[in-house]
Each structure stands twice: as structure tokens, then as C-alpha cells.
Write a structure and sequence with these properties.
Strands 1-20-17-16-3-11-12-15-13-14 form a 10-stranded mixed β-sheet, sandwiched between helices. It starts with 34 loop residues before the first helix and ends in a 24-residue tail after the last helix. It is built from 18 helices and 21 strands. By secondary structure, the protein is of the alpha/beta class.
């Protein structure tokens, strides 16, 4: 077959351009300029890797330590050298203070619902709504125009959608979201990324379900705004926190390892600070409950921290220029003494801003690690406004890892089935191509009788194999879908796993990966690591490296470069 004339610039006798020729088109394969140094390094590498004494040092088990569950590991997205970190800051709510979620969500749900009826004119019959903790999860989005709650993958594509408490009908889902990417900057959508926001999602869907089932028309946007304002008021007027303070033991988990973890960091030469949006009176009550009396070296919780900043107003703390105000911490009211001209140990402040904080403390950039739970207020904004390193507290990860560990056998089977499905799909496509080629030969070519018979027998054999493969592929699809649904719904019957959506990371998981250098389930997990720990992440591999290209072996560990999300516009 002729492909046309060969370009005069290429000789038909030469190798394909790009191959390992003397002068390839796409680069150079010549020896490096300093090859002798590389050969010397290779010899030293062989000596290092065959050193018996060193081998024993690296393979001898360390002294036995308390076995820490995998669910309480510190997970690494971006390499972080703790010996470079000099100042570590902590949020309080859902970070130092881990709440008993179901109890707190129920309280917030009940108080917000009562306010909607008494102050926003909602009919009394909505007061009979029950809170369903299964229906709420971090990382969901509310479509304020259509009244739907959505879960998206990392690309912004909607994988699951509910209207009220029922799955959105497939036709409606396809029309609204199938070929659209949800952009959270669009005011049509509200991103519920905090644990505080879980009750409002349940309220929103519950009220829609109830009122529409009774024939009422619902203004979806107004409903969301009313719920948001009501729940904000419950937090802002301290009515929710007053109820929590009445019985802190009911709502706040007392972690016996928290004090020792903070002490270990201080003993490793780190200075610590508290930066919370909560006001002084609530902060003092919760922190006293958490830390007072845990260790004799710290008679007061304030002794753990070099700087204490309350009512910080994050994320505005990272983007605006509000002054620090010194408070009188000897009283519960914490009256303002005046504008602070410095930050001193033992003194409590409110407000403030990032630039002045770095100026007053003398610590900035990558020498500061901030630990928080809020993907936007604590992690994303600090990462986009500063070079602070970040650690996100995701307390739900303990449940997800514990659950998936318990379903190990089913997940391994599912993985094997998925790989089999991919192999079957490839084989079906291959047999289809072979069958098409054979049939075209029989139709178009004049073949000798013996050869035609041989081709016909091969066609029949290929067709039979194709039918077998197709049946197996159909069966495999059904098995995989059933097993995946079972595993997903076993964790959450509505939304599946927190960090996954379909075969991709969920939008929430994606943002954790993009903006948090580290993530873990609770602050006390740092107790099980050295204050000088070098946290290393595996390097991201491109598809050709995952397929076997040896460039993947050059640097298997990640870097300490900018976070993945630092250049994002969204």
C-alpha cells in the first residue's frame, strides 16, 4: 500500500523520528557532561545498599510502642519538615474541641427549626420534622434555584442529587446537571463544607419534602436564605453555645491525649497559639474543660499557648486589616482594654489580621503551621493569603477508614472484579476488530476454498469467543455495580463515602488534597509522632508513569513546593 511520497527531509532508511538514534528529533540521548561523577555515585550507591551494618540498623524493629490505629494516622499531601516549623496554631471548634456530632447536630436542628416557626413565619406543622443524621455529610452543595442537594466529584460533575429526601429523577438530573459543571462561585449554589452546616442541609431537604408532599409551593432560594440566617443567629446570639455550656460533657469529647500532644510539641521547641472565631467567654469555658488539670506542668489551659486570639473573624482574618484588641481576661465578659501594639504571652486578644500577626510574633510563611477544620475559613483562605503550612482536622475520617477496613474482603473482591471488567472490555473490543477484519475478507476477497474454509472457521471461533466475552462483561458490570453500591451505601445510604464520588475523589476530598499539607482526625494524633517528623507524601504520577515509564522511579516521594490549589482561580 502506498502512503504517498516520502518527505525529502527524511530518508526512508532512517529510524522513526524520536527513536534512540544518534540525532533524534525530540531530544538528545548523548552522555551527560559529567558522566564520571555519575559513575562514581553509582559505585557509592552499590556500597551503601550492600552495607550489612547499615542494613541491620534500618531493618531492626524499633522498641515496641503502642499500636496506633490506621484511622488515626497523619496523612500527607505535601512534604512537610516539622523541624522547619517554629510556630503551630490551632482553631478551637471541631479542632481542639471535638464535638459529639449527633448530639450537637440535633440541638442545632431543634433550635433552628423553632426559630423558623417563631420568627420567620413557617407553619407549625414543620415542627414535627425529625433530624436524620444519615442525610447529612460535609461537601454537599445546595442548588438554591431548583431545591436540590448535590454531591460532586473533583471535576464539579454531579454524581448524586436529591430533591427533598428522594433521589432526583434521572430525567431531571440529566437535564439539569449531566452536561454541566457546577461552579461554586455561581450564587445559584451554596457549598456546605463545615460540620456546623450539616443541620441546615437536613432542614432544607426536610422542609421541601414535607411542604411539597402537602401541596405547598416552596421558594427554594428564600427557604435556604431563611435557614442560613436562622442558624447563623443561633450561633451569633450565643443561644446554642449557652446550651452547650450547660453540659459540656454531653457535647464535647474529652480527649485525654490532647494535653500530652500539645506538651510534646512544646517540648520539641515549638511555640503554640490559639486562633478561634469563638468569643472569649465560650473559648475560656471549653478550653478549661479540655485542658485544665490534664498535666501538672500546665495549671491553666492558657499556659499551653504563647498567643491567644479569640473572635478572629476568619476568613476575614486572612484578608482584611482589622486591629488586634486586648481583652481583660480576668472576667467572663472579656471587656476590651484597648488596641494592642504587640502580642504577649498570658494576654488574650480578639480580632486582628494576618500581616500584623506575623509582624508582632516574628514568625511568618512556612515557619507557621495552622491546624483547623474548615476547608474555606481555616485552610483555603490561609493557603491563598499566606505561605503558612496547613493541617486539616477531618474527624469523620476515623469512621470511614474503620468502616472500609471492616469491609476489606468485599472491597478486595470489588477491585478484582473492576480489573476483570477492564480486561473484558479490552478483549471484547479486540475480538470485534478481529471479527470485522475476517468478515471483510470473506465478503471482499477471492480466497481459495481451503483458505476460505480456514478463515470461516476462525470467524466462527472468534464470534463464539466474542459472545462469551460479552456475556461475561454484562455479568461483570452487574456484579461490580451491586458490590460498589453495597459498600458505598453501607457507609451512608444517601451519599456513599465522604472522600469518593463514583470512581473519582469527591469535591470535598479534592479540596482537602489541594489545600491541606496534612490531614488527620484529631490534634492528639500528633502525640504519636516526633515534633521533628519529616512528613513525606508520594509523588503524583502521570498516566504514562503509572503505565510503567521509569521516570516514576526517579523521585518516588513528593516535594515541599507550593500546594496544588495555590494557583487555582476558583
Amino acid at each position: 500500500m502506498s502512503w504517498g511520497p516520502v518527505s525529502p527531509l527524511l530518508s526512508p532508511a532512517q529510524p522513526i523520528p524520536g527513536g534512540p538514534s544518534v540525532d533524534p528529533l525530540h531530544g538528545s540521548f548523548r552522555s551527560s557532561i559529567r558522566r564520571e561523577h555519575a559513575e562514581d555515585a553509582a559505585r557509592r550507591a552499590r556500597d551503601l545498599l550492600t552495607d550489612d551494618v547499615l542494613g541491620r540498623l534500618l531493618t531492626t524493629p524499633r522498641e515496641p510502642t503502642t499500636q496506633v490505629p490506621h484511622s488515626r494516622d497523619v496523612f500527607v499531601n505535601r512534604n512537610l519538615r516539622m523541624d522547619h516549623v517554629e510556630l503551630i496554631g490551632f482553631d478551637m471548634d471541631y479542632t481542639l474541641a471535638i464535638y459529639h456530632m449527633r448530639r450537637l447536630e440535633q440541638l442545632s436542628f431543634d433550635m433552628t427549626l423553632a426559630k423558623l416557626i417563631s420568627e420567620y413565619g413557617y407553619p407549625p406543622f414543620v415542627g414535627g420534622l425529625l433530624y436524620d443524621h444519615h442525610f447529612v455529610m460535609r461537601g454537599l452543595a445546595v442548588d438554591r434555584v431548583n431545591g436540590n442537594v448535590l454531591k460532586m466529584d473533583r471535576f464539579g460533575h454531579v454524581g448524586r442529587a436529591y430533591h427533598g429526601l428522594r433521589p432526583l429523577k434521572r430525567d431531571a438530573w440529566k437535564e439539569l446537571y449531566r452536561n454541566k459543571r457546577v461552579r461554586l462561585r455561581n450564587p445559584q449554589f451554596a457549598w456546605n463544607d463545615t460540620l456546623f452546616a450539616l443541620p441546615e442541609t437536613c432542614l432544607y431537604s426536610g422542609i421541601i419534602e414535607l411542604m411539597e408532599s402537602l401541596g405547598h409551593t416552596v421558594n427554594y432560594g428564600k427557604l435556604y436564605d431563611d435557614i442560613r440566617e436562622a442558624i447563623d443567629t443561633v450561633h451569633r446570639d450565643n443561644s446554642l453555645k449557652r446550651e452547650i455550656r450547660k453540659d459540656l460533657a454531653r457535647y464535647v469529647f474529652l480527649d485525654p491525649e490532647l494535653g500530652p500532644a500539645l506538651h510534646k510539641l512544646r517540648s520539641g521547641g515549638k511555640r503554640l497559639f490559639l486562633l478561634t472565631n469563638s468569643a472569649w467567654d465560650y473559648t475560656n469555658a471549653v478550653m478549661r474543660y479540655l485542658l485544665d488539670g490534664q498535666l501538672p506542668e500546665y495549671p491553666s489551659w492558657k499556659n499551653y499557648f504563647d498567643f491567644v486570639v479569640t473572635a478572629a473573624g476568619k476568613p476575614a482574618f486572612f484578608t482584611e486589616n482589622r486591629p488586634f484588641l486586648e481583652l481583660d481576661s480576668s472576667t467572663e465578659a472579656g471587656k476590651v482594654v484597648g488596641e494592642a501594639k504587640s502580642l504577649e504571652r498570658g494576654t488574650v486578644y480578639s480580632g486582628g489580621n494576618l500581616a500584623q500577626f506575623e509582624e508582632f510574633t516574628g514568625y511568618r510563611g512556612e515557619h507557621v503551621l495552622y491546624v483547623g477544620d474548615h476547608i474555606y475559613g481555616d485552610i483555603l483562605k490561609s493557603k491563598k493569603s499566606s505561605l503558612w503550612r496547613t493541617c486539616m482536622i477531618v474527624q469523620e475520617i476515623e469512621d470511614e477508614i474503620t468502616y472500609t477496613d471492616a469491609r476489606r474482603e468485599e472491597i478486595v473482591t470489588l477491585s478484582e472484579v473492576e480489573l476483570t471488567r477492564a480486561r473484558l472490555d479490552d478483549e471484547v473490543n479486540h475480538r470485534k476488530t478481529v471479527l470485522n477484519t475476517l468478515e471483510r475478507r470473506l465478503e471482499r476477497e477471492e480466497l481459495p476454498a481451503a483458505e476460505r474454509q480456514e478463515v470461516e472457521e476462525l470467524r466462527k471461533k472468534t464470534k463464539a469467543e466474542l459472545e462469551k466475552l460479552r456475556r461475561s462483561l454484562k455479568e461483570t458490570n452487574g456484579i461490580a455495580d451491586t458490590l460498589e453500591r453495597d459498600v458505598e451505601e453501607g457507609f451512608n445510604p444517601y451519599w456513599g463515602l465522604l472522600f469518593k464520588e463514583g470512581n473519582e475523589n469527591s469535591r470535598f476530598g479534592y479540596q482537602v488534597e489541594q489545600y491541606a499539607c496534612l490531614y488527620t482526625s484529631r490534634v492528639s494524633n500528633f502525640l504519636h509522632h516526633s515534633p521533628m517528623q519529616y512528613y513525606r507524601s508520594p509523588r503524583d504520577l502521570m498516566a504514562h508513569e503509572q503505565a510503567g515509564a521509569l521516570s516514576s522511579k526517579l523521585s518516588p516521594m513528593g516535594s515541599e513546593g507550593p500546594p496544588k490549589g495555590s494557583l487555582e482561580k476558583e
